[in-house]
Design a protein that fits this description.
homodimer, Multidrug-efflux Transporter Regulator, Chain: A, Domain 2, 2 strands, about 50% helix, DNA-binding
DNA sequence: CTTGCCCTTGACCCGTGGGTCAGGGATTAG
DNA sequence: CTAATCCCTGACCCACGGGTCAAGGGCAAG
């Protein structure tokens, strides 16, 4: 299967597939004798996992870090024997996921603070609850 | 006052000041006969307001859109007569602030969803509560 | 006058996840 | 055989808020 079809099959673009490959997220697929990428069904399975995890909020870098385990993850069939199974990851390398969750939490908190500060400035009656952080700048990490 | 001192006075760098000016956020300051920027105390006041608002989470673009009103805002003294006064903006052009708050809210919600999805995948016992959005990708706009 | 710091503009760098050419080869249908 | 698609690599583009470097000119003190 060539790149265009593979991309379409997982809802991506050829560019994205080459990009994942370049970032070490995907094992380089076989090539036809003319040099065109040729994706096997197994490759597609890994690709689907990658897209899934990216969709879940993991970054390309996160996945590059656990690229070696992705084929294993992809090899796991949907397991109809256990419908109560976890969302799907769980095996992925929980450390990565945990770190990403922590990063998301931190970002959410930062944005929430910014929003509240803005809202406090906007609202004429913050009932003296507002924290009034005087130091104006330094809002980005 | 030359750019280095002005920058130091508001806790920024010369580069940042030139950047604000270039983005139309700051009125171009006077120049010495040799072409060096010369900041007046009024310029500094505007600068401080800009830094404050950026620190509150407004973007450079937001401020460029209301650049004309910033000097007015800067001209308002701290008003010791009304210690219950709003955070400081309020006058800024509430529409901009409201839009930024809405954008922040949207981003916060998006990140929260991502985090929850990740957490659901991590946690082996989501008690069949998990939404299972099968369409994997398309998480960033 | 010279030294040393400050200022000028312009241009490229960061990270994220690719999009969009550009120029050339491969594959496939008619 | 030819034309229409597809694919290849490499390179530059987006937003954000500046950081950093380069080459050249200004400014004050000794």
């Amino acid at each position: 299967m060539r790149i265009g079809d593979a991309a379409a099959a997982v809802g991506a673009t050829p560019r994205a597939l080459r990009f994942y490959e370049q970032r070490g997220l995907l094992p380089p697929p076989r090539r036809t004798k003319a040099g065109q990428r040729d994706y096997t069904p197994e490759d597609l399975a890994v690709l689907r996992v990658v897209r899934h995890l990216l969709g879940l909020g993991l970054t390309v870098e996160d996945l590059a870090g656990i690229a070696d385990r992705l084929p294993l993850l992809a090899a796991q069939p949907p397991r109809p024997c256990d419908p109560e199974a976890p969302g799907e990851p769980a095996v992925v390398g929980t450390a990565v996921v945990r770190r990403r969750i922590a990063a998301l939490d931190a970002e959410i908190e930062r944005l929430t603070r910014l929003r509240d500060a803005l809202r406090a400035g906007l609202d004429p009656a913050p009932r003296r609850v507002t924290a009034r952080a005087h130091p104006p700048a330094s809002a980005g990490r």
